[in-house]
Amino acid sequence: MKSRYYILLLAALCCCQPKAELRLNDVRVIGSHNSYKLPIEKALRDLLSLQDSARMASLQYGHLPLSEQLDLGLRNLEIDLFHDPVGGRFANPKGLEMLAASGQQPLPYDEKNDLSKPGFKVFHVQDIDFRSHKLLFEEVLKELKYWSDQNPDHFPVFITLEAKDKAIEGLTPPLKFAESALDSIDLVLNQYMGTDKLITPDWVRGEKTTLEDKILQDGWPLLRECKGRFLFILDDAKEKRALYIKNYPGLSGRVMFTNSPAGTSEAAFMIINDPKKEQERIKRLVKKGYMIRTRADAGTREARTGDYSKFEAALSSMAHVITTDYYQPSQLFESTYSVRFKEGGFVRHF
User: CA-CA distance, 197 to 156, in Å (whole number)?
Assistant: First the structure.
């Protein structure tokens, strides 16, 4: 069933569309950051705030279920992945143990015992910020696929995937994302989404020599060709990016795009998080034909102070994808801060 917002979106794009057909990089979208995230339960947040109040304040946000975000009109999501091929590595968060030790009863958690199953897990910070609408990556993809099947002509959705393996003192150590683990992400994406739902580097490149040559010389695919599809980007600019490209030069045969710099054969979609400091750089890259994702806010700071300057910088930078924790005002502290385009929605064209 098509959402009311989706119907209005199509009408707006059709009415405003110029004579030349729109391409994928002719549009701009607003989406959510850590899109799967549920808020830390108050009792645990209060307990952890005694140790680090600033950090807990920065984590005080949460999101609607993914399908509801898409129904609202958001067309960008972010998912964090933890590698857990055996299962059970994150099944007993220390935060729940802390609550029990303090004499408090934790809220129900993982009642389906998903964390004992092998596969990629989805949450923000192990042991501390571990509540998620979907704890299994495959369940995330099933939800996205189902929603897409119900809305087959939907506007393309951009999804950044962060493969998280940074150790944090005192918390359960995550497994490193070796090349085989990155290969597994591709396998899962193909298995649960299907190639007809994906915008891949090969699909964009076509017969061109490199992906960068294609987008700079011929442009991105036409928007109408991208309807009903998802474009996934690996959010890493160091070791994991290098491993992902290692045996797949130019991303030939890969599912995800990478955050690769201009001048490389993989360069097409870049993640530049600070639109204030990187304003002119983003503009230059957009003008050349690259697609850019940036942020409107971070760590709840802008929402607490009503500061739209970062969002305004993101708008003037001409970045294509702008992420926020506040497509609607916070329900966790008093604030009217929310991020939308001036037309009132989450998608527009240049």
Answer: 9
Q: Which residues pair with 82 in a beta bridge?
A: 121
Confidence of residue 231 (pLDDT cuts 50, 70, 90): very high
For 158, phi and psi rounded to 5 degrees?
-100, 130
The dihedral of CA 203, 213, 219, 237: what is its sign?
positive
296 neighbors 302 (Cβ within 8 angstroms) = yes
Reported as a single tens digit per residue, the pLDDT across 317-345 is 999 999 999 999 999 999 999 999 999 99
Q: Annotate 286-307 with b (16+ C-beta within 10 A) or e (fewer).
A: beebbbbbbbbbbebebbbeee
- Residues 317, 325: Cα–Cα separation, whole Å: 19
The pLDDT of residue 7 is: 47
CA angle 171, 176, 181 (to 5 degrees): 130
Q: Give the tens place of pLDDT for each residue, 98-128.
A: 999 999 999 999 999 999 999 999 999 999 9
Q: Which residues of 22-55 are buried (b: 16+ CB within 10 A; e: fewer)?
A: bbbbbbbbbbbbbbbbbbbbebbbebbeeeeeee
Q: How far is CA 206 from CA 167, 198, 203, 244, 288, in A?
A: 40, 14, 6, 20, 19
Record the tokens describing residue 210, joined without a space: 């490199």
Are the beta carbons of 319 and 310 closer than 8 angstroms?
A: no
149-159: per-residue pLDDT in tens? 999 999 999 99
Q: What is the mean pLDDT of the chain?
A: 95
- The b/e string for 231-254 (b: 16+ C-beta within 10 A; e otherwise) is bbbbbbeeebbebbbeebebbeeb
Does residue 234 have a pLDDT over 90?
Answer: yes
Residue for token digits 């045969």?
A: 253
DSSP annotation of 121: B
pTM over 0.70? The answer is yes
Q: Is the dihedral of CA 203, 206, 210, 216 positive or negative?
A: negative
The structure tokens listed for 24 are 């994928």
pLDDT band with cut points at 50, 70 and 90 for residue 13: low
* Cβ–Cβ under 8 Å, residues 285 and 277: no
Residue 300 carries which side chain, given as an amino acid letter?
T
